[in-house]
Structures are given as C-alpha cells and as structure tokens.
Design brief:
seven-stranded parallel β-sheet, 39% helix, globular, binds adenosine monophosphate, DEAD/DEAH_box_helicase_dom, RNA helicase activity, nucleotide-binding, RNA helicase
C-alpha cells in the first residue's frame, strides 16, 4: 500500500514525500478514503498511530476542492484538541501538509494573549485549530464565526471529556452548520463517546486500529520495584548508568513534577518540568529545549504530556504509576513510535501494586519485574505478599529487558523464583 493508492492530490503527495513517509499507517489507510468520500468518521486511534495526518490530509483535499478566498473570522475547517500543546502540534502538522496548497491555518488556545489571535482571525483563515475554552472566548467576543465550517475534527475526544470539556463542546457544536462533515477521533470508545457520536455524527464509518502500544508493540516494558523514598536516587542512577539522553518522566502531580525536576537538577541532570501551572511560554520553551536536546530530562504530568509528539523518544519513565490505567497506555505511547524502538520503565513502590495490577489487567499481560542491585525494596512487614524473600530475588544489572508473556502476578513471582540460581 502506498499513498498513491489513497486518492490524494499531487500537492499532498509532495508534502508527504517531503516528510519522508513511504507508506500510510493502518489508520491512514482506513480513514483517508472514507473522509475523502465525505463520510462522518468515528475512529479509535491513539497518539503515535499517524492519526493527525490521517484526518489532516483528506481535510485539506476536501477544503481545497471548495476553495474560496479565506473569509475574515469564518474558518471552513475546525479542529478541536484537548490541550494547548496538542493544538500547537496539530497546527504545525496542518501547516506542513498544506505547504503546497493555497490554504492557511492558525491556532488559538488559552494562556497567551488573545489579541494576536484576533488579528490573525481577522486576516482570514481556512483552518482553525483550537482548544475549547479559548474558542468559546472568541465566539463570545464575536471575533470568530463558525457558521461556515464544512469540516469538524474532534481530536482525542475521550481526553476532552476526561478534562470536563463536554459542555464547551456541546456549546461549540450548537453553533456549527448541520450539513458539515464530522470526524471524531478517540483513543477509547467509552459510553460517553458513543453518546456524543450518536448525537453529533451522521451514519459514521467506524474505524478501529489496534493500539500500537499495547499488542504488537515496539515498546519494551519493565517494572523496577523500589521503595518510594529511593525512587529519585534510582532514577538518577539509571539515567547516569545507561547514559540515557532523552528521557520523559511522568509524575502524578504538578508538585511532584516540580520537586523531582529540582532534585534531578541537583543531581547534575539538565531537567525541566511541564505541567498545567506553568505558563504557556514556559511549557513551549521546555518542550522545545527537550526536543533540541538542550534538556535531558523532561518531567511531565499526564495532562501536560497529552499528545506530545516527540519523535523517536527512546525512554519513558513512570516515576509514579497513574491512577487511571488507560493513562499508562497513553504515557508509553510517547515511545516506540513510527517503527522506532522504545523502552517504558516503571518505578513501582509497594503501595502502587494495586495500580500495577489494574494496568496489567488492561494490557492483558504481566509486565516483567527487574530488581536493581542496591535499590531493592526494604524487607516487607510480616504477612505482606508483594515481594518474594530478598535472598531469592534475582539481581540483574540493567540488562536484557524483555517483555514477558501473559500471566498473573502470582505466575510472575513463580517465574522469578524459578530463575533464581
Ligand atoms: P500522530 O499519531 O499523528 O501523533 O503521529 C505520530 C508520528 O508519526 C508523527 O511524528 C508523524 O510525523 C509520524 N507519521 C505520520 N504518518 C506517518 C507515515 N505514514 N509514515 C511515517 N511516519 C508517520
């Protein structure tokens, strides 16, 4: 399968080839022809599957076929995303793929001045990428009018609902023409997503692709059991020991992200944090420095990291396990992308084992555990069953991190013991 088979116009094929893409990803193979036919789409696709190009390329083609000069404040394509970073990235992708077409795009999101956005909208745009809150601000100020929207994309819709945007989305959709084409992308098809789809999509084509980062994945997953108060030391040790160059570290809280970034900086690692309390300028700068290799470790919370497109990211570390198992899948989706090898490392303290169990249930497999010599958890209280006796644990020095076949934690313990010399 090549892009030529998908019915895309030469200007888009040139842009694709400029990007160095040789063949469409599975989601692209399915969604591009359906969108070109004018169908509404309900697609389950996670970040890393190539979904952005999947909706952007046919959107550009359809809008260029009805091309008129962009009218002030009246975009014809609208892409809604949950976070500012994702909005900025999607806008970058639209710009990239539209480079040989006479279509223009802009992005609006909160946390930055609204004035330049108003000026830009006044100049006329074909495609608008936006986060819901700032979009509503523009509608309220009448600096934007959605009555000419022909195509709407709801990107990472499950995350928009998780973040409480449902009312905003309903308000925004109420102002759109009914005759539009709607494309809904979501990592999961929850009941809430189905309900939204039933309300806002017309006889949609449903497309599901296997999440890259669960089954046939390029991501090696490993759990290092460690006491909570030793996690930071272990992380510094691992980064130094392996000479990891670009590490994305997840924490559960903003406070935790700040504290860890400070501690790692004290350990001599170039580290910065990215989370919702940082200004947009600081978040953008942090991401840029990380992408350019000026910062070695980026510590992020789930919301801030959502959709970050950092190519060829080799290492993702779960400093804390997420409360929601699906977030684990989103997190490790930052690595092993587009055919590259990736490693997802979780530092798991005893109190996090119930979370680990929920994650393994979701993944339908157990994640291999590996004790790092010198960082083994302290002996457990009598009656606790989380760890095998210390003398029976297998010690390994950071080698051979392989995924394991399916099995329960009980089996995993057995496995580990059976390997013990
Ligand atoms: P996305 O899922 O949209 O966040 O895309 C994930 C990454 O895959 C991005 O870095 C894209 O540039 C890249 N990508 C998208 N389509 C292709 C393709 N057909 N071949 C190779 N890489 C791609």
């Amino acid at each position: 399968m090549t892009f030529d088979n998908l019915g895309l116009m030469p200007q888009l094929l040139r842009a694709i080839s400029d990007q160095g893409y040789h063949e469409p990803t599975p989601i692209q193979q399915q969604v591009i022809p359906a969108i070109l036919e004018g169908k509404d789409i309900l697609a389950s696709a996670q970040t890393g599957t190539g979904k952005t190009a999947g909706f952007t390329l046919p959107l550009l083609q359809r809008l260029s076929s009805t091309s008129t000069r962009p009218r002030k404040r009246h975009p014809r394509g609208l892409i809604l995303t949950p976070t500012r970073e994702l909005a900025a990235q999607v806008n970058e992708s639209v710009t990239t793929y539209a480079k040989h077409l006479p279509l223009n795009t802009t992005v609006v999101y909160g946390g930055v001045s609204i004035v330049p956005q108003i000026q830009r909208l006044r100049q006329g745009v074909d495609i608008l990428v936006a986060t819901p809150g700032r979009l509503l601000d523009h509608l309220g100020q009448k600096t934007l009018d959605l009555s000419q929207v022909e195509m709407l994309v709801l990107d990472e819709c499950d995350r928009m609902l998780d973040m409480g945007f449902i009312h905003d989305i309903r308000k925004i959709l109420a102002g759109l023409p009914e005759s539009r084409q709607t494309l809904l992308f979501s990592a999961t098809f929850s009941a809430a997503i189905q309900k939204l789809a039933n309300t806002f999509l017309q006889s949609p084509t449903v497309i599901e692709v296997a999440p890259r980062n669960t089954a046939a994945s390029q991501v090696t997953q490993i759990v290092h059991p460690v006491d909570r108060d030793r996690k930071r030391a272990l992380l510094s040790h691992m980064i130094g020991f392996h000479n990891w160059e670009q590490v994305l570290v997840f924490t559960r809280t903003k406070h935790g992200a700040n504290r860890l970034a400070e501690q790692l900086t004290q350990d001599g690692l170039k580290t910065t944090a990215i989370h919702g309390n940082k200004t947009q300028a600081a978040r953008t700068r942090a991401l840029k420095d990380f992408k350019q290799g000026k910062v070695q470790v980026l510590v992020a919370t789930d919301v801030a990291s959502r959709g970050l497109d950092i190519e060829e990211l080799p290492y993702v570390v779960n400093f804390d396990l997420p409360d929601v198992p699906e977030d684990y899948v989103h997190r490790i989706g930052r690595t092993g992308r587009a055919g590259n090898f990736g490693r997802a490392v979780s530092l798991v303290s005893r109190d996090e084992y119930p979370l680990l169990k929920s994650i393994e249930r979701l993944l339908k497999c157990s994640i291999e555990e590996d004790l790092i010599a010198g960082y083994e958890p302290k002996p457990v209280m009598p009656g606790e069953v989380h760890q095998p006796p210390a003398q029976k644990r297998r010690r390994r020095a950071h080698t051979q991190e392989r995924p394991t076949p399916a099995g329960s934690k009980h089996k995993r313990r057995d496995r580990r013991q059976s390997r013990t010399p």
